[in-house]
Fold each of these.
Amino acid sequence: MASRPNLTREDWIQTAQQVLSKSGVDAVRVDTLAKAMSITRGSFYHHFSNREELLQGILTSWRARATEDVILHLRNAQTSAEQQLIRLLELPYHGHAAQEAAAVELGIRAWARGDRQARQAIDEVDKHRLSYIEGLLMQMHLGETEARDRAFLIYSYQLGLSLLSTEGTSTNHMDRSARMANILLSSDTRHAPPQQADQPLSV
């Protein structure tokens, strides 16, 4: 194997994320990554002082790509709050790239169960994503409490998709996404008054 110092820091991070998603954080080792990339260890030390710095790089890169960049892209599209939410609900169905992103996130969430640094990154990302969704719902004139509850429901649905099978065609997926958007964003019963127990039933 030859040393390839022209490899970038991001090359190492992306390979590390792939190993993490398939084999867990314990498999993210310099030797393992060098073997996967068919290079010597020397390239690693052009970019990182040690393994801990690489692990921090994984979290920083994931946070930027999977949250900050996504939100920035949606906001820059200059569409309505409802359209941004519909596009957000479609993201898990965006082909192989979406599946890889989901696998990396699952790997990081598993890592976070036993690591404070990863847990902090997860907590920050969850809070940021929920705040963004809640803000969009409030732009759609939902009250603060309902917006918070619906944001939690929408986000839970998105996370659940990463755990479920992706069987079916892209058409099936997009049709389901449209139906779920209709359910999750529907306002038909938003302000319906509660039924009083002493009101007579209509017949």
Amino acid sequence: MIKLRSAMVLPLVAALAAACSKTPEPTATSAPEPPAAKPAAPAQAAPAGGQQAAAGELAWDAPASFESAPNPNSMRKATYKIKRAAGDTEDAELSISQAGGSVDANITRWVGQFSQKSDDSPKRTELKVKDIKVTVVEVKGTFAGSGMPGMPAQDPKSSYAMLGAIAEMPSGDPWFFKMTGPEKTVTAARADFDKLVNSLHVK
């Protein structure tokens, strides 16, 4: 009887020993911790001076007194109406466009649209607005119309004035801001015109 019992106990002890030697299954408390996350690489400073943004279109802030109006043709970027001053019979108009040609050639064309110019016409001033070169021109006299091909002829209008600004872009054609109308109305709108010109900036 003793030998039989020993033969039965030995295999049982061996089985228990083998079970204890195995690695336990991971549980919620015994699962191995994930490897520590690598520290993020430090952000690199931007190069000194940075990279210049690509040149975009010209933008401006229109004064509240300038009423937006439909563009009469595809060449116009914007059109504004300026209410007439007391004593004038017409409103003034500000046209904004972008086209080719040199500054001098376009100023010559503008001045040529007036006959019987006043003694102080034309006036020309150059300024910088946020690194944009702007040439401002003022003409007074009898306005004979645009004189552009395909445009209807206009009767000459006395006591008229024009305020024009040509903005030269770093690349691309210049922009033209041209206000024409009765002299009193254009003169009264001069301060708002100057505000618009001084608000010019590249988008």
Amino acid sequence: MKNAEQIAFWNGDVGATWVAHNALMEAMLAPLGERVMDTLALSADTRALDVGCGCGQPSLSLARRIGPDGAVTGIDISAPMLALARSLANQESVDSAPVQFLEADAQIYAFEPDSFDVVFSRFGVMFFEDPVAAFTNIRGAMSSQAKLAFCCWQPRARNPFMTVPAVAALELLPTPAEVPPRLPGPFAFEEPDYIEAILSSSGFSNIAVEAISHPLVFGPGLSVEEIVERLVTIGPIAQMVREAPDSLQQPVREKVVAAVSPFYDPVTGLTLDGEFWQVTASR
């Protein structure tokens, strides 16, 4: 997708669906964001940028870590997500840094130079039409000693959260067209050499791409059938199932229930391994 298509995508049904299931997704992804934040040296006067901030929880976590003398800016293209982010921000303690949310494209937004001491992202930087232009623009907003830290997916094939439901669904559904590598999307940054090339071309130094593993825990307290219903609504097989004929909707769900049941616990929900890149760099 190009940026205009991404904007339409995240402001349409997908953005609204993500907001509706935000608590579920946040519970699964928050530990990864916190792990990446731990790599940043945050002080009381830190000015932080959260790229692709979504519903705002990572921005608010940064604000709590920094405290009232700093500042946090979250930027995203999704109006529905940002509406929730602003609502959540209104509930925050005065002990947190003030947070502003921008509905804008970080690839082209006219940031003020020397605006940020750290730039963070949790799965928010893989969707740029031109990633070198985007990171060059972001770097221009950073102070001379600023640090960048983000996480992104390793290849889909290394992530059972993606593959286990999909393989089951594909027993009944046609195989989707293969997505060319490096196109904007969740797995655009699956190659570590590509990440390094983008950041190097954008002017960053001290680039490190570290492989990290972390279990993805999805739907604690839900039945396995309820979890599968979420997976076909917002998970890795959502589009595939959405486009399936009515006659296959329930059979596909039954296939996925059978496939994920070995990884299910009534208390903890679905737990599948996750493989990610943790990326850090200096301006």
Amino acid sequence: MNKQQHNRYQRQIRLASIGEKGQQRLLDSRVLIIGLGGLGSPVALYLAAAGVGELVLSDYDVVEESNLQRQIIHTQASIGRLKVESAKERLLAINPELKISCLPHQLSADELQDQCSKADVVVDCIDNFPGRFLINKACVETQTPLVSGAAIKLEGQVTTFDSRLKTSPCYQCLYTDEGVEGATCEREGVVAPVVGVIGTMQAQEVINVLLGKSALTGTLMIFDAQYLDWQRITLLKNPVCPICH
């Protein structure tokens, strides 16, 4: 860590739970963020600011005006641009020392598995079940920790699946993929700060995982924005899960 980096991250280095060793670990880490929308925006912004050294951004969508209500990494000038390119520009404006790679296309199963295998942590910030099942499968096969978030209407949830641990459930232990058609923000709506709350929680949990101090492996946190209430639920591994049994 050079003098400039030490100065930039001094507020984190001062924490006994991070210190110089922990900050260097963040700088040496690679995180794959899948989805640069409502959840991916705060995830990417905070990980960039906190000094996670390499971010891989995956999203094949373009910015639309209706995104700007909650996708805070993008601006009015971003409309029509690929989300990954808009996000990259914003992140480098915050922290120009970052290494950022963009994947502006839908990942094939093989490419997804390859990218997961190269990452220290994968962050699921998408809004559809089929994609989440594919991400989960790739993370189980590559034994890559997965920090998963979701938000809809006035509710959100966040958890971590870590297949390196024999006792950790996976996403498919929580949800079956049989005929699932989940709600989306486009159809159901979502209040803007909810995705910010969940995305920020995801960012913190990514840092926790990178530092070997996960708070949510095997735990599902559910947020009710109307009453500002959190519920904490223990998740158990499904002994007959077709993915991680």
